[in-house]
Design brief:
Blueprint (H helix, E strand, L loop, with lengths): L1 H20 L12 H12 L5 E5 L5 E4 L18 E13 L11 E3 L4 E10 L2 E2 L16 E3 L2 E5 L2 E3 L2 E2 L6 E3 L2 E5 L2 E3 L2 E2 L12 E3 L2 E5 L2 E3 L2 E2 L6 E3 L2 E5 L2 E3 L2 E2 L10 E3 L2 E5 L2 E3 L9 E3 L4 E4 L2 E3 L6 E2 L11 E2 L9 E2 L67 E9 L18 E6 L8 E5 L5 E6 L5 E7 L10 E8 L4 E6 L5 E12 L8 E8 L8 E11 L9 E5 L11 E4 L8 E12 L4 E10 L14 E11 L3 H4 L6 E4 L2 E2 L5 E8 L19 E5 L2 E2 L2 E4 L5 E8 L7 E8 L7 E7 L8 E7 L2 E12 L2 E7 L2
Parallel strand pairs: 1-3, 2-3, 3-5, 4-7, 5-8, 5-9, 6-10, 7-11, 8-12, 9-13, 11-15, 12-16, 13-17, 14-18, 15-19, 16-20, 17-21, 18-22, 19-23, 20-24, 21-25, 23-26, 24-27, 25-28, 26-29, 28-30, 30-31, 32-39
Antiparallel strand pairs: 32-35, 33-34, 33-36, 36-38, 37-39, 40-41, 41-44, 42-43, 42-45, 45-46, 47-49, 48-49, 49-53, 50-51, 50-54, 52-53, 54-55, 56-57, 57-58
């Protein structure tokens, strides 16, 4: 209790601060606050040893629309690094339903992390990266990626997707699933090889008890469960899973490449292309007291040396070592009195009283075992003489391609797999809580509603199915209009043949990509000359079709002649809704010429053709930035080896001038004689707070003098001298505590013969050391 209170109070305090800052009242976390969940997990992770408990608001929906971290992929919640229990209270954690869904996995458990999920719904997670990211790990685990310890109790994991493996869960650690349902998850986004483990992919240690794995889809293999680690399944149901690619070993229910032990489990109605619903390459699969039957594509395929023990039942004779080959007389998958769906058996089923040896104290539903002379095979224990369906309501139907748009399902029109449907309580104009299902391989779908079931419901298609290069893009809905139907049920009523006709269009018809620049970060907009501007650009495809063969271009001097690139990168192919970030390092180089320029960041489908009048290249989205180039750093460095000369001259009775001579010992003053056509640099100086009248060359490029006008009280005073160069923030010459000389001689006018040129100068006498001599100034 102490740990729980600590987490909740700290998280509540942070949320309360956010509410106060926004002008809202209240000191407790608002219902359905995703921020609350994120803050709570972060606090628990940093809370030290011990287990922290987070209670979610009953029935709420926590939507994840932003990537929190990218550990092993894009995760919507902080990675679990400590021991945390989340009590869901039937709350839902899902990917955001916003107009542009991001690819976001819901949970990630790091090594050393320990997560317990109780009574929670995990919905619509997506473990997927852009097509150029081929790493399997980053493309796996739609709802959960576990590299630590995971326990799932009394929960539902549904309608999640992954590009490669583990549509529902990818387990690389230790996992236990109790009394939970893993259904309608998929790894067939691209319908390509290497997409496996529609429900679960296990490479670690997994234990599944009293649970149902149903209606999951994979392209290659393991529609339900893929295992290359250690897998134990007891008192569970694996039903209605499917694979889609032909010519590949499917294992529609389970494919095993590790060690698998299966007991008191029913595996039925799975659909594969080849090699059986249960497939094992090594002889490390052990099956006892189970039913494997009524699977399309065969029941079993495994080595004859596999340790099959005790009675088992199959329906086609393909399961080597099974003692019974017959129809098990299974009823459809339904809620038969327990928290998860099961296949009940008829009183005349050969599976009745056929088990041998010890059996669990209860069946998958929690009904006591045995009920008779011996336990029944499979996950369902028959009691009371027949099927024991509850008073739940079932809604079932089909999503089909209405190719002739007449709103009628006709021969030749096919169903579509993997389309997400939403069932919401209440009328469509004011819906309440929602659950989601994916259509099965043949386009069929089924929702189970727990009692009480009477009332209004809204059933609709979610057009935001996972974006990829083969997915069907919504066209017009033919039946029902708008893609939604309102249903009113009486208590326990079932409805079937609910049809969704969809005039689908395949990606690539008249649909367009739309790569948009969503963020640009510059390390500076005021670079010194002869330096780089580093640029980071994020582009997101906000269109409905993959963006392929696009380029990202940086034009540093846009508007100054041809758009010559200062940086160039080919963008990877971007699926709809997917971003890509490109960093240009060192970036764009600007020359030594100071000035203001326009940096254009541009997306185009053919950069190299843009300057060609016959080009079909099209410039796309762009953003412009003002770049102000300052003097080069080398031009602004303080001068070294400076020598000073100064003396005071009188022009009138109360006005005096002071030339200050600066010599750089043979090194030219930078910028006075530029190599290009730019104007020479200008200098100015300060004597204390008195600005110079002018700073000019004294006949040589390493000698500069600055002229000041002084007042009578200043001779003999001490002032700081600073010389500034145009475009430089700091002085290039600093001489503190410069002693101003005493006035000794009046100003004279003189003419000096310098050959062909005459020079009018001010003359007088200058004191320098012990030498006193006449002196003329020739500006």
């Amino acid at each position: 209790m102490f740990e729980k209170s600590k987490i909740m109070v700290r998280a509540a305090a942070l949320i309360a601060l956010a509410l106060v800052a926004s002008g809202c009242d209240g000191g407790t976390p608002p219902p359905c606050s995703t921020d609350f969940l994120i803050v709570s997990i972060n606090n628990a992770n940093s809370n030290g040893p011990g287990t922290d408990t987070i209670d979610l608001d009953p029935g709420c929906v926590y939507e994840l629309g932003i990537v929190d971290n990218t550990i092993d992929g894009n995760n919507g919640l902080p990675s679990i690094t400590s021991s945390i229990v989340i009590n869901g209270n039937k709350a839902t954690i899902r990917r955001s339903t916003g107009a542009q869904k991001s690819a976001i996995r819901l949970f990630h458990i790091s090594p050393g992390g320990d997560l317990v999920l109780n009574d929670v719904i995990l919905l619509d997670g997506l473990g997927m990266e852009p097509t150029n990211v081929t790493d399997t790990i980053r493309n796996s685990g739609g709802a959960i990626f576990n590299d630590g310890d995971l326990t799932v109790n009394n929960s539902l994991i549904t309608a999640n997707h992954a590009r490669r493996k583990g549509g529902g869960i990818y387990n690389a650690g230790t996992m236990t699933i109790n009394t939970s349902t893993i259904r309608n998850n998929e790894t067939n986004i691209g319908n390509e090889p290497d997409e496996s483990g529609g429900g679960i992919l296990n490479t670690g240690t997994a234990t599944i008890i009293d649970s149902t794995i149903a209606n999951n889809i994979a392209s290659q293999s393991a529609g339900g469960i893929g295992n290359s680690g250690d897998l134990t399944i007891t008192n569970s149901t694996i039903s209605g899973n499917s694979t889609t690619l032909s010519g590949i070993v499917s294992g529609a229910a389970i494919i095993n490449a590790g060690n698998a032990t299966i007991s008191y489990t029913t595996i039925a109605n799975n659909t594969g292309t080849t090699a059986g619903a249960v497939f094992s390459a090594p002889d490390t699969i052990q099956i006892s007291n189970s039913i494997i039957a009524d699977n399309i594509g065969g029941d079993c395929s495994y080595p004859a040396t596999s340790p099959i023990s005790g009675p088992n039942l199959d329906s086609d004779g393909s399961c080597i070592g099974f003692t019974i080959t017959a129809s098990p007389q299974l009823d459809p998958l339904a809620f038969n009195g327990g928290p998860t769906q099961t296949h009940s058996i008829a009183p005349s089923s050969p599976a009745k009283n056929a088990a041998a040896g010890s059996c669990p104290a209860a069946d998958q539903r929690g009904e006591p075992r045995p009920h008779g002379a011996a336990c029944d095979l499979g996950s369902f224990e028959l009691s009371g003489g027949g099927s024991q369906a509850s008073d739940s309501s079932t809604l079932s139907g089909l999503v089909f391609d209405d190719s002739n748009t007449n709103g009628i399902f006709e021969p030749g029109e096919s169903g579509f797999a993997g389309v997400e449907l939403l069932l919401e309580s209440g009328a469509c104009l004011a819906p309440g809580s929602a659950v989601s299902e994916l259509s099965a391989a043949d386009g069929s779908f089924q929702f189970e509603i727990f009692p009480p079931t009477a009332g209004a419901y809204c059933l609709s298609i979610d057009p935001l199915t996972p974006a990829n290069d083969t997915i069907l893009i919504p066209g017009g809905f033919t039946v029902p209009p708008g893609g939604e139907m309102e249903i009113t049920l009486t208590e326990g009523e079932d409805l079937s043949d609910l049809l969704f006709g969809w005039d689908f269009q395949f990606a690539g018809s008249d649909l367009q990509p739309n790569p948009v620049i969503t963020n640009v970060v510059l390390n500076t907009t005021t670079p010194p000359g002869d330096s780089w501007v580093e640029v980071e650009v994020t582009v997101e495809n906000q269109g409905a079709y993959p963006a392929e063969n696009y380029d990202l271009v940086l034009i540093p001097h846009y508007g100054w002649g041809p758009p010559n690139p200062g940086g160039y990168a080919s963008l990877p192919d971007l699926l709809p809704g997917f971003p890509h970030t490109e960093t240009f390092t060192p970036g764009v180089l600007y020359g030594t010429t100071p000035g203001t320029f326009t940096l254009r960041v541009l997306v185009t489908d053919d950069w190299y053709a843009l300057g060609d009048p016959d080009s079909t290249g099209t410039a796309g989205d762009y953003q412009d930035f003002t770049i102000t180039v300052l003097e080069s750093l080398t031009m602004c460095n303080p001068f070294e080896g400076i020598d000073y000369s100064l003396f005071l001259l009188s022009i009138e009775e109360d006005i005096m001038v002071l030339p200050v001579y600066i010599t750089t010992e043979g090194v030219a003053f930078p910028g006075l004689f530029p190599e290009d056509d730019s104007p020479p640099a200008e200098y100015h100086a300060l004597l204390g707070d008195i600005p110079s009248n002018a700073c000019e060359l004294q006949g040589f490029d390493d000698r500069l003098y600055c002229m000041f006008t002084l007042t009578p009280e200043m001779p003999g005073a001490v002032r700081d001298f600073q010389l500034y160069k145009e475009g430089c923030e700091d002085p290039v010459v600093t001489q503190p505590s410069l002693l101003l000389p005493e006035l000794e001689l009046p100003l004279l006018l003189c003419t000096i013969d310098l050959g062909p040129d005459d020079c009018v100068a001010a003359g007088g006498e200058m004191s320098k050391g012990l030498v006193r001599a006449p002196y003329c100034i020739c500006p």
